[in-house]
C-alpha cells in the first residue's frame, strides 16, 4: 500500500533545462517501455522540463557517495567513489560497485536481495529538495546507507513495519514500477527482515532529516577468543594414480575463456547472462580468474571489461 505526500516537487520546472537522456532512454528500451521526455510528466504544459525529468537526465545533480573504511580503523578511508548521472544509471552503478567491494572483502557478505532493495529504496524515497548525497559506508563489520530526508509526515516506524509506504516521489515511483524495479507493494522492509531472519537484525534509524539503515554482515564466525573444537582425524583413502593430464581450468573458466576469445573481452553482465547467476557470484568468478593470471581487468565498476592476460 502506497500513499502520496502533498508537496508536488516532481512537477515543478527544473532549474536546469539543457537536458539529455541517453542512459534513461537505454534503460527504457531495454525494458520495452515507451519513453518520451518531451511529454507529460517530464514537461510542464508550457514546455519546460520538470524536476522529474531532471532526475532521469544525464545531468541529474544528485549523487551517491560510497566510502570504504580500513579493516583496522573505522575512521581511515581506503576507498571513495561518487556516482552521478540519471537515477536509473545510479541504481545499476551503485549496486555493481557495492557488489564488487563486498566480493573483494575477506569473510564478509550481505544478503544480496536485501542489499539491492535498500539501495533502491534510498534512491527512490530520498528527499530531492535536499542537496546532500546518499551516503553508503562500508565498515569491516557492517554497511550503512544514509538517505537524505526523514520519514514522510505522519509515517511511523511501526507503520513501515506493517507495510505502509508513503511515496515522497510518486511519479518517480510509477516510473520505477513500469521498469519493474519495484513492485510497489510495501514489501521492502519485509525483504530486509526476512533476509536476516537467522542473523543479526538490521536497524533503521530515523531523524527529521535522514534515514539510516545499518546492515550487519551476514557471516557467522567463531568469536575471536573462542576456539572451535578440533575435528576428528580420519585417514584419507588412497587415491589412485592418474596418468592423464589435468586441466588447471574449471568448466566455468573454460566457458568464460571461449567467450573472451570469441569477442575479445567480457563483462560481469555477460557472465551473469551466460550462467544465470547473481552479480556477486559473477564478480567472484572474474576476480578469481584475474587473480590467477588468466584474465586482465580494464576499467572500473560497471564499465570493467576483462581480456586475456
Give the topology, please.
Elements: E1 2-4, H1 22-31, H2 51-56, E2 64-69, E3 77-83, H3 87-104, H4 112-125, E4 134-138, E5 142-148, H5 157-161, E6 165-167, H6 170-178, H7 188-195, E7 203-207, E8 210-216, H8 251-263, E9 266-267, H9 268-275, H10 279-291, E10 295-298, E11 305-308
Parallel strand pairs: 1-6, 2-4
Antiparallel strand pairs: 2-3, 4-5, 5-8, 7-8, 9-11, 10-11
Helix pairs in contact: 3-4, 3-10, 4-7, 9-10
Q: What structural class should be given to the helix and strand makeup?
A: alpha+beta
Number of H- or I-type helical stretches = 10
CATH class of the largest domain: Alpha Beta
**Lateral strand order in the biggest sheet:** 3-2-4-5-8-7
User: What fold name goes in the CATH topology slot of the largest domain?
Assistant: Heat Shock Protein 90
Q: How many strands, which pairing sense, and closed or not: the largest β-sheet? A: 6 strands, mixed
- The percent of residues in helical segments reads 25-40%
Number of strand elements: 11
* pLDDT averaged over residues: 81
Radius of gyration: 23 Å
Terminal CA distance: 51 Å
Unreliable spans are 220-247
What is the CATH architecture annotation of the largest domain? 2-Layer Sandwich
Strand content: 15-25%
Describe the model.
- By secondary structure, the chain is an alpha+beta fold.
- The chain has 2 domains: 58-216, Heat Shock Protein 90 (2-Layer Sandwich), CATH 3.30.565; 251-308, Arc Repressor Mutant, subunit A (Orthogonal Bundle).
- Helices cover 34% and strands 17% of the residues.
- It has helices at residues 22-31, 51-56, 87-104, 112-125, 157-161, 170-178, 188-195, 251-263, 268-275, 279-291; strands at residues 2-4, 64-69, 77-83, 134-138, 142-148, 165-167, 203-207, 210-216, 266-267, 295-298, 305-308.
- A hairpin with a 3-residue loop joins strand 4 and strand 5.
- Helix 3 (87-104) packs across helix 10.
- The radius of gyration is 23 Å and the shape is globular.
- 30% of the residues are buried.
- Mean pLDDT is 81; it is low at 220-247.
Amino acid at each position: 500500500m502506497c500513499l502520496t505526500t502533498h508537496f508536488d516537487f516532481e512537477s515543478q520546472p527544473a532549474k536546469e533545462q539543457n537536458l539529455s537522456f541517453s542512459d534513461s532512454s537505454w534503460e527504457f528500451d531495454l525494458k520495452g517501455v515507451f519513453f518520451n521526455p518531451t511529454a507529460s510528466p517530464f514537461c510542464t504544459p508550457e514546455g519546460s522540463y520538470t524536476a522529474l525529468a531532471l532526475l532521469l537526465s544525464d545531468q541529474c545533480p544528485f549523487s551517491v557517495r560510497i566510502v570504504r573504511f580500513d579493516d583496522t580503523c573505522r575512521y581511515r578511508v581506503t576507498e571513495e567513489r561518487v556516482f552521478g548521472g540519471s537515477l536509473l544509471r545510479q541504481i545499476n552503478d551503485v549496486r555493481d560497485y557495492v557488489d564488487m567491494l563486498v566480493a573483494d572483502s575477506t569473510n564478509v557478505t550481505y544478503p544480496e536481495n536485501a542489499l539491492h532493495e535498500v539501495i533502491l529504496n534510498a534512491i527512490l524515497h530520498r528527499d530531492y529538495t535536499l542537496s546532500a548525497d546518499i551516503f553508503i559506508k562500508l565498515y569491516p563489520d557492517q554497511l550503512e546507507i544514509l538517505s537524505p530526508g526523514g520519514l514522510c509526515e505522519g509515517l511511523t516506524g511501526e507503520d513501515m513495519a506493517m507495510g505502509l509506504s508513503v511515496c515522497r516521489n510518486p511519479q518517480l515511483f510509477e516510473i520505477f514500477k513500469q521498469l519493474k524495479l519495484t513492485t510497489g507493494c510495501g514489501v521492502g522492509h519485509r525483504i530486509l527482515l526476512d533476509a536476516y531472519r537467522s542473523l543479526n537484525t538490521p536497524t533503521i534509524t530515523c531523524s527529521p532529516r535522514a534515514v539510516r539503515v545499518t546492515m550487519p554482515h551476514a557471516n557467522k564466525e567463531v568469536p575471536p577468543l573462542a576456539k572451535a573444537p578440533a575435528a576428528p582425524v580420519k585417514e584419507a583413502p588412497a587415491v589412485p594414480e592418474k596418468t592423464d593430464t589435468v586441466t588447471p581450468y574449471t568448466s566455468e573458466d573454460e566457458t568464460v575463456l571461449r567467450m573472451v576469445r570469441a569477442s575479445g573481452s567480457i563483462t560481469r553482465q555477460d557472465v551473469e547472462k551466460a550462467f544465470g547467476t547473481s552479480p556477486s557470484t559473477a564478480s567472484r568468478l572474474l576476480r578469481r580468474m584475474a587473480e590467477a593470471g588468466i584474465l586482465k581487468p580494464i576499467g572500473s565498476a560497471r564499465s570493467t571489461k576483462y581480456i586475456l592476460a
